[in-house]
Amino acid sequence: MATFAVFEPPLKKQSAANVDALSRAERFKFVRDGFSWLAFIFGPVWMLCHRLWLALLSYCVAIFAITAAAMWFGLAEGAVTLASLVLALLVGFEATTLRRRKLLFWRWQDAGIVVERNREAAERRFFDRWVASAPVKAADTPVPEMPAASNLVVMPAVVPATPSATSETPAEPVQRVPVYDPESYVIGMFPPKGTPPGGKP
User: Fold this and answer.
1) How far apart, in whole angstroms, are the C-alpha atoms of residue 118 and residue 81?
2) pLDDT tens across the length of the chain (201 residues)
3) Number of domains within the chain
4) Which domain holds residue 110?
């Protein structure tokens, strides 16, 4: 299991309300605690990748001091190699501390520690907890305030009047539909074929 220190990026006041939660989550940094083999083997290159300018300057000064001591005092080649190895081990062990101090110097917030088997599992576990505890952003459209109960005026419901039988308004005449006469030969407007006008066949 590995231990990861989580750092949250700083937010400017003028842009704090316009930052999306997803874009903000992508900027989180997970710094693994422990010995760094990359910093041990590729010390100067590793410092350049993480923009550790002060650490890189200190490393160059230390290398220059070891080289100058070897030239001025006639140190053996084995002593110079041993000194360089000790310096590389120091960078490997202090790699995590160097990154933490840099982030804290630039006002990054320490968001906690996650213990997991790898970085992907640590990110998943941290963001599951972070999303659950994140406040819900209010809607941009303001919600109108409801008036107080003492200021409410209840209007009586208007019920439409039902016309009664005794109303003075005369009722409309009911149209009666004529009943179909089966004895009649007239269908629609035309009599059957062969029937004289005005008579039956």
Assistant:
1) 34
2) 899 999 998 876 545 445 566 677 788 999 999 999 999 999 999 999 999 999 999 999 999 999 998 888 887 888 889 999 999 999 999 999 999 999 999 999 999 899 999 999 998 999 888 877 765 444 444 544 544 444 444 444 455 555 554 445 555 555 554 554 555 544 444 455 555 555 554
3) 1
4) 2-133
Nearby residues of 19 by Cβ (< 8 Å), 6 or more positions away: 11
DSSP state of 190: B
Nearest to 130 by CA among 30, 16, 14: 30
- 95 within domain boundaries: yes
CB 195 within 8 A of CB 185: yes
CB within 8 Å of 7: residues ≥ 6 apart: 28, 29, 31, 100, 103, 104, 108, 109, 110, 111
User: Is there a domain that residue 176 lies in?
Assistant: no
For residue 165, is it within any domain?
A: no
Measure the CA angle with vertex 121, ends 115 and 123; round to 5°: 85
Distances in whole angstroms, Cα of residue 190 to Cα of each of 66, 176, 177, 178, 193: 126, 23, 20, 18, 9
> Tokens for 142?
């303001």
Q: Are strands 29-32 and 109-116 parallel, antiparallel or unpaired?
A: unpaired
Q: Is residue 171 part of a domain?
A: no
